[in-house]
Amino acid sequence: MQQKLRNGRVSTSLWLEVELRKALDKKAEAERRSVSQQLICYLERGLKADGVLGEANGK
Fold first, then answer.
1. What is the Cα–Cα distance from 43 to 54, expressed in whole angstroms?
2. Tens digit of each residue's pLDDT (9 = 90 or more) over 1-18
3. Which residue range is the domain that position 6 belongs to?
4. Which of 15, 27, 33, 57 lies 20 to 30 A from 9 at CA?
């Protein structure tokens, strides 16, 4: 019985690790999208300021 309990703890620990990793991966993906969107906006503003990208070609 002690072995089963120990195995249960191990599998629970591994499950928690997997769930934590999934959550961290989701957060990292959201941050990458946010940074990418910020970079796109920054580049669009620069191109518009330089007259390369007109308002009609923007968003």
1. 13
2. 344 555 556 567 888 899
3. 2-57
4. 27
